[in-house]
C-alpha cells in the first residue's frame, strides 16, 4: 500500500463496527483503536475509585491519565460499563482529552482503523474511507445477548434491548459530538448481513477508494 490509510467506522452499540474494524485492520495491515474502550476505561477508573460519573473535573482528570496501551478489552467490554461510558461521554472536557489521544494514535504510520461514534465527524474528518454501520435495535440486542450467553454469562433480551435503545438516545442526543453519519460516510446496514458479507462489502468500498487514490 502506498501512503497512509485511515478508515473511520462509526455506528450504534452492537452494530458490528468493532468486528469490522478488527478485520479491516488485519486485512490492510493497519493498527486498530476501539475508541469505545477509551470511554469505557474512564468510566471503569471512576467506578473503581468510588468516584461519581457526573463530576466533569474528576472525569477529565481520569481521561487525561488514561493509557491507551493499557486498555483491557476483556474487562472493559462488560455490558454494564457501556452505560457508564455513555454518561462520561457527554462531558466536553472528557471528549477533548480522549480525542487528543485518539488523533495521535490515528496519525502514526502506516495508518489506522478507528471505530466509535464520532470518528468520521470529529476525530478523523479527513479519513480516506468512512463507514457508518447500522442494524435494527432488535438485531443488535440479539447479537449482544448471544455474545453474553456464548461467554457463559446470563442475560435478559428485553433488558438488553432497553439498554441499547437508552444508550442510542443518549449518544444521538448529546450536544457535543453526537452519533451521526458524516456527510461523506458510506452507510452499511448489516441487519441482514453476516460478518463475512459485511466485511466483503467494506473491503469493496476501501478497494475502490484505494484504486481512485492510486489513479491521482
Ligand atoms: N454482521 C454481523 N452478523 C452477525 N453478528 C455480527 C455481525 N457483526 C458483528 N456481529 C456480532 O455481534 C456482536 C457485536 O459486534 P461488535 O463488533 O462488538 O459491535 P460494536 O463494536 O458495534 O458494538 C459480536 O458478538 C459480533 O460477533
Ligand atoms: N468515539 C466514541 C466511542 C464511544 N463513545 C461512548 O462510549 C460508549 C461505549 O462505546 P462502545 O463502542 O464501547 O459501545 P458498544 O458499541 O461496543 O456497545 C458509547 O455508548 C458512547 O457513549 C463515544 O461517545 N464516542
TrEMBL record:
| Primary location recorded for the protein, binned into one broad class | cytoplasm
What HAMAP family does the annotation carry?
A: Cytidyl_kinase_type1
| Compartment(s) | Cytoplasm
Name-wise, this protein is Cytidylate kinase
Q: Which gene encodes it?
A: cmk
Q: Which domain of life is it from?
A: Bacteria
Q: Which GO molecular function annotation, any one, does this entry have? A: kinase activity
Q: Where is the Cytidylate kinase domain?
A: 7-204
Task: Give the species this sequence originates from.
Answer: Nitratireductor kimnyeongensis
> InterPro entries given for it?
Cytidylate_kin, Cytidylate_kinase_dom, P-loop_NTPase
Amino acid at each position: 500500500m502506498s501512503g497512509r490509510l485511515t478508515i473511520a467506522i462509526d455506528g450504534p452499540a452492537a452494530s458490528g463496527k468493532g468486528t469490522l474494524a478488527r478485520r479491516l485492520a488485519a486485512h490492510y495491515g493497519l493498527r486498530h483503536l476501539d475508541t469505545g474502550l477509551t470511554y469505557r476505561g474512564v468510566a471503569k477508573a471512576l467506578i473503581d475509585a468510588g468516584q461519581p460519573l457526573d463530576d466533569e473535573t474528576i472525569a477529565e482528570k481520569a481521561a487525561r491519565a488514561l493509557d491507551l496501551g493499557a486498555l483491557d478489552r476483556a474487562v472493559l467490554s462488560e455490558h454494564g460499563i457501556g452505560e457508564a461510558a455513555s454518561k462520561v461521554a457527554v462531558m466536553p472536557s472528557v471528549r477533548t482529552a480522549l480525542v487528543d489521544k485518539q488523533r495521535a494514535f490515528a496519525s502514526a504510520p502506516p495508518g489506522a482503523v478507528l471505530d466509535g461514534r464520532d470518528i468520521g465527524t470529529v476525530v478523523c474528518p479527513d479519513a480516506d474511507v468512512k463507514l457508518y454501520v447500522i442494524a435494527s435495535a432488535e438485531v443488535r440486542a440479539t447479537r449482544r445477548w448471544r455474545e453474553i450467553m456464548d461467554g457463559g454469562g446470563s442475560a435478559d433480551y428485553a433488558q438488553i434491548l432497553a439498554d441499547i435503545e437508552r444508550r442510542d438516545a443518549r449518544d444521538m442526543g448529546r450536544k457535543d459530538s453526537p452519533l451521526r453519519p458524516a456527510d461523506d460516510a458510506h452507510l452499511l446496514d448489516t441487519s441482514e448481513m453476516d460478518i463475512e458479507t459485511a466485511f466483503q462489502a467494506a473491503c469493496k468500498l476501501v478497494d475502490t477508494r484505494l484504486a481512485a487514490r492510486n489513479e491521482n
